Structures are given as C-alpha cells and as structure tokens.
C-alpha cells in the first residue's frame, strides 16, 4: 500500500469543460493523497486552460520547486501543448528530475510534451489516466486504477492480453509513442525522439480508418515506422467504418501496414481514450511476446514509487 503521495496538477492543454468531473476526481484522490496546484482547474483563456504563459509556467516552474511532488498529473488533453514546446526549460527539467522517481502522467495532447521530454531531457514519463477524464469519471474504472497504481509501485511490470490473430514472436526495445496524431505532428521537429529498434505504441480518438492509415504512412515515408521492431495498437475510439468504406476498417489498416513495412502489428491492447486503459512508461525498456493469440508486455527501467 502506497503512503500518502503529493500529486501536483498541470494544465498545459485545453480548458477543463467538465468541472464536475474534476471536482469528483479531487474528492477521490484527496481521500488519501495531497493535491497541489488545484486552482488551475478553473483557469481559462479561449479554448485553453489559461494563457500560453500560464500553461508554460505549469511546466517550467517545476524546476523551481523546493520539494518535488511524487506525481505530476495532467488535468486533461485537448490542444495546447504544441504552442509551448520551443519554450520549455528542458535542461532544467532534466537536471531537476534526473534520478528522481517523479511520475509525469497524462495522454492525448500530453503526448507531445512526453515525447519532447524524452527527446530533449531523456525523461521517462507515463501515458495513462488524467484527472478529469479518468479519475473524475462517474464510475471510476477499477481496471484503469489498478494498472496505474500497480505499475507505479513496482520496478518491473507485466501486462497480459489477448489478440484476435495467431502470431508468434518476441521483440525487445525501447517503448515509445502515445497519441498517433500528436506523434505525427512532431515529425521533422526536434521534439520527436529518434528511436530505432523500438516498440511503438499508438492510440487515438475520432480518427477514421483512412486517417489512421494516412498517419501511419506518413511515419513510414519519413523513415520512422520501418525502423521499429513492432507496433502495439491500443483503442481508436469513434473510428467505426461507414457504408462508403465497404469493409475497409482498422483491421484492414493493420494488415496492410504490416505487409507494407514488414513490422508486426500487435493489436487490441486496452490503452487510450476508453474508460479501461493501462498505463505505459514512455521511454522504458520493453519485451513484447506473442504466443498464438496471447500477448505479453514486460516493462522495466522506469521511475517507480516502490520506496515511498
């Protein structure tokens, strides 16, 4: 059982329109843990969670903290991190958090910050639940909650799931990725880490199958996708085919991209914008095993709270 932890909120993206969900999350988490910086939840400028300066300060002021929090948790995603990437104090963050078991956690738009931190500061962060959408859900997913806390308090963690296709193999490499649209938005910039022989994990929301394929082809033509050992696909919420697609769907995309690139696509991991999502350490070491329809992801080399 983890002792009471300090959780500091950051809001580098969109305004939290679901204030009731955020309030519910604060009530839940504060039953055991200490929450900091909660005043940012109501902050707003246009569609953003405050001005660019305010949202940037959420990140850069971490360097100046006298006492580091155990967890830095994003309030929500949306859009906004991309505006900040060229002004973040990467050297300061690297110096402050190097060797410190602080957990940066979020997903969706937060992916851009996570990949930039990996590229510029060599910091491993966590693609997982956020304050409003996950911890503030009307019914808190025990699946999501258990995977989050279990991963954070162990130095090694294994995730098991079942796929629909028969495949056998074992691949090892650095785990990286997150939201597919945000990954693609960083192509050609300094903020995309140069990972070769890695295991790329992807998820997204509100992207139909052809848009997903187009983004994967962009990664392929940029010389990135073909350098990976494997791709793990999570949830692609609200991407159901329509009558025009005539059977063209995400399964078609995975099969096509696997054939084109020679990179195996391992599917159906509960990860992304659905209520049930695992937490993944972005930048950690991973071993991916496929045996018939069983899948296993072994994770190591990431910050943990096991000593807290």
From TrEMBL:
InterPro entries: Carboxypeptidase_A_C_sf, Class_I_gatase-like, LdcA_N, Peptidase_S66_N, Peptidase_S66C, S66_fam
SUPFAM superfamilies linked: Class I glutamine amidotransferase-like (SSF52317), LD-carboxypeptidase A C-terminal domain-like (SSF141986)
GO molecular function, one term: muramoyltetrapeptide carboxypeptidase activity
Gene: ldcA
Signal sequence annotation: none
Keywords: Carboxypeptidase, Hydrolase, Protease, Serine protease
E.C. number(s) listed in UniProt: 3.4.17.13
UniProt cross-references to Pfam families, sorted A to Z: Peptidase_S66, Peptidase_S66C
Protein name, per record: Muramoyltetrapeptide carboxypeptidase
Presence of keyword Hydrolase: yes
Residue ranges of every copy of the LD-carboxypeptidase N-terminal domain listed in the record: 7-128
LD-carboxypeptidase C-terminal domain location: 172-288
Entry superkingdom: Bacteria
Family assignment from sequence similarity: Belongs to the peptidase S66 family.
